[in-house]
Amino acid sequence: MSFFSLVLLALALSIDCFTVCLVFGMQRSAYRRALKPGEKDPFPSLGGTAAKAGLVFAVYHIIMIVLGWLLGWGVNAIVARYDHWFAFALLLGIGVKTIIDGFNARDAQLKVHSMFDWKSLLLMGLAVSIDAFAVGISLKMIEVSLLEICTVVPVVVFLASLSGVFLGFHTHKQMKRISLPAVNLIGGLVLIGIGVRILIEHLSGV
Questions:
Q1: Could you give the angle at the alpha carbon of 72 between the alpha carbons of 57 and 137, nearest 5°?
Q2: For a Cys-Cys bond, which of 26, 36, 44, 110 suits 48, CB 3.0-4.6 Å?
Q3: What average pLDDT does this structure show over 181-195?
Q4: Which of 151, 133, 51 has the alpha carbon at shortest distance from 87?
Q5: Which tens digit of pLDDT belongs to each residue from 24-47?
């Protein structure tokens, strides 16, 4: 496989990460706008938020690729039966919780929902990186260098995640009337949509 083909593969794997991070960026912008005068933003800088998400997603892709490479076709049939249901369940659960938290009065003080939480970020990282397991299996069969895969894919995923956060943040700044609850609703629906897409693709054999 050529380097260009590997980059294209990495871009395909990073689409879901980019989409999730786009929502992250919109939520950071909406949160800052919702702060009262003099109220301090307790979260890291936008760059820190973007780097955290990008790092989590990149590391997960490395882990899943290496697992696929090492375990091979022996477990592929077993994993393929359940991986899409697992990803769907994770994204559905986080998406629903994001929507609920966005309108929850108990969350009004900080106006923060589950997507800022490390636990949810780790779960989302797992959900959006499951396809990398199958990629690890497939690329081993065509004898692509594992080192090359684990260098190119995480770098592309990390950069896609960074760009998603910053693009989402600056896009929301131009949308003056979209409140934080509305952004949370959009974010929750996006996560659920990604889960549904993963499920349909696997069930239909796409």
A1: 50
A2: 44
A3: 79
A4: 133
A5: 888 888 777 777 777 776 666 788
Tell me how far apart the alpha carbons of residues 137 and 50 are, in angstroms, rounded to a whole number: 29
- CA 84, CA 18: separation in Å to the nearest integer? 19
Average pLDDT over residues 84-88: 78
Burial class (CB in 10 A: 0-12, 13-18, 19+), 167: middle
Res. 193: pLDDT tops 90? no
Q: Note the helical H segments in 129-179.
A: 131-141, 146-173
Q: Quick one: average pLDDT of 143-152?
A: 85
Cα distances (Å, whole numbers) of residue 132 to 10, 33, 137, 149: 9, 36, 9, 10
Tokens of 138: 């497939």
Single-letter residue type at 157: V
